[in-house]
Structures are given as C-alpha cells and as structure tokens.
Amino acid sequence: MKKIEIFFKSILLKLLVLFNPVKKQTELTVFNSKSNLLFIRLNRIGDALVTTPLLWEIKQQLGCQIIVLADKKNHFVFKNNPSIDKVIVFNKKLSDFFNFNKLLKDESIEAIVDLHDDVSTTVSFLVAIAKIRLKFGLKKSNYSVYSHTVEKLNPRSNHVIERILNLSSIFNLKIDKRNVSVKYFPTDPEKQIASNQLEHMNPESKFLIGINISAGSDARFWGADNYKILLTTLSKYQSRILIFCSEKDIHFAKQIIDVNSIYPTTDSFGIFASAILNLNFLITPDTSIVHIASIKRIPIFGLYVKYKTDDMIWSPYNTDFEYVETEEPTLSNVSFDEVKNKLIPFLEKHLNVKRDS
Prior knowledge:
The radius of gyration is 22 Å and the shape is elongated. It has 13 helices and 11 strands. α1 (2-19) packs parallel to α6 and α9 (224-234) crosses α10 (250-256). The protein is an alpha/beta fold. The protein has 2 domains: 10-179, Rossmann fold (3-Layer(aba) Sandwich), CATH 3.40.50.2000; 188-350, Glycogen Phosphorylase B (Rossmann fold, 3-Layer(aba) Sandwich), CATH 3.40.50.
C-alpha cells in the first residue's frame, strides 16, 4: 500500500512541477536579522539532531529569524534551542498541505530550506506548492522544485552533518568544522531530574558507563546473553554501569542486570538525554543517542547495522569513537569477541581508574 501511495505521489509531484515551474534565480538575497526563514526537517530524532549545527551557524552569523517545520516524532529536539525562534509541528494531514501557503504568509517567510539529505516526497510537495520565490535544497532527484541548489556531497565519504552543512554556501557562511557540534538543550527541570537520579544510582561518582540496549529497530538489539557477558567483562573495571532502554525493552534489561542498575524509563526525551550527557562512556546501537553524547564529546562505542547501503555510518561528529558493524540485516551474528576486541582497548584508553587485578 505504501509503494502505491509513493508512486501516485511521485506522479502528482511531476505534474505539479510541470504546470507550476520554479523560476531559477541567479542572485541570492542577503539575509539578516530581519529575515524570516523556514527550515523543514520531518521524520525521526536523529534526523533532526544532525540539522542543528547548520541552524546554529545561521543564527550566530546572520541573526535570521529561524522557524522550523518539524514532525510530531522529532519537534521536541528543536525546542528550547536559542538558535530557533519557533517550532511548528507538521502532522501530514490534508489540512496542513492546504494551509501551508497561509503559514508562509502569516510568518512572513522569505525563503524555505529543505534540510533533508534524501528526497522526501512530502517535503517536495510542500516546496513545490509554496508561493514563494526562494526555495533552497541539496541537489537531488527532486532538484526541479528548488530555486537554488547546492551540491550534495558523496554520502559514502562525507558525514551526514557535513552534507547538510554544505547548504551554508547559500548563505555565504564561514564555518570552522573543528568547532561544529550537535545542539540540544534540555530544560533546567529535566536536567535536575536526571542529575538527582544519577546521584542516587552512582553515589560514589565512579566512572559512569552507560549501555543503551534499545534502538529504532529491533534488528539492532544485540541480545540479552551478549550484554550479560559484556557486563561480566566490564565488572573487572572500577566503574558504575547503568543500562538504558525504552519501555518496550525493559523486560530485556531485567534479564541483563539488576533493576537497581536500570536507568528509569521515561517518556521525556529531555530527561533521558540529560542522563546520557552525564556519562563518561557510552555503548549503544542507536544513532540518535550517539549524536546526543557527541554534544559533550563523550567517548562512544557503537554497534551498527549497515545493510544494503554504501553510505557512511551516522557516527558521532568531532568525538572519539570506535565501533563494530555488520552488513547483515541484524546484529544477531555479531560475536561477543568481535565487540570485545575493539571495545576493551578503546575503553581502557578513556578510563580514569586502573583495572582491578
């Protein structure tokens, strides 16, 4: 059913572009603090996080009013961010499409920026129907809907953050990539709740290792037995180990470790992220958490499924990192020894305590 929907949407989009062609621009507008820009980034949490460096640079260098059209699954990533002036949730209802041009008028939008690295049919529709002169995006197969495009860097050899940052050339920004990082700002109450919980769970302030077992897909669950063996191996180090997981995986967590070492599950992404930001070391199969940890340059060990793709993995940016990956559809055949042989030297490099004899 989804394939049929995508097929008809693609046909409709082609007709829309054919009968409503975009006028290609040769000169770019100079944007400033009085300019209102709409940035579109739908879909998941990780998708939103990797766009925040670009939004930060635009706000810092140009002072533009930045409005983000986000998804119900990721809008909270953009909240409380000082570089973002307003967040609007797009629910993908028919009324949202019909009211899109009213939104542009009400917000006095001068330009739309598609932050998607891949083609989004939904966003292509929005850009195509927008009654606005300036429409920016990476050069993809839907390039005809934009007034301006910039090169999409090769995803095999360029990090996703750098691919999105390439849009900065439209705004004539100068960016020192050595200082680039993901931006996310939990609220003070969220940070306090996480801090209190961690003080209770790690009263001696030991080197804190977080093991997140959950990911967006069950294919990235490494297995309770593997994690139990890993805990036995890590017990040789003077550290405090906490398991992080989603509510759906709490039964797995209880198989792996005592309940007192399971960080309380929560619906609040801000509380969860605040706890991650207080770790000394992270082990995870989930890329959104990887990007959160990278904010504070926390050393990360990742478990990656790289199935039927040559694209660079979504690794943390400007952060010390080690990983294992499989080209099979799940992590189930990644052996414990394969993980151990890479993880232990990497962990020992970052431990600030000696190994027990």
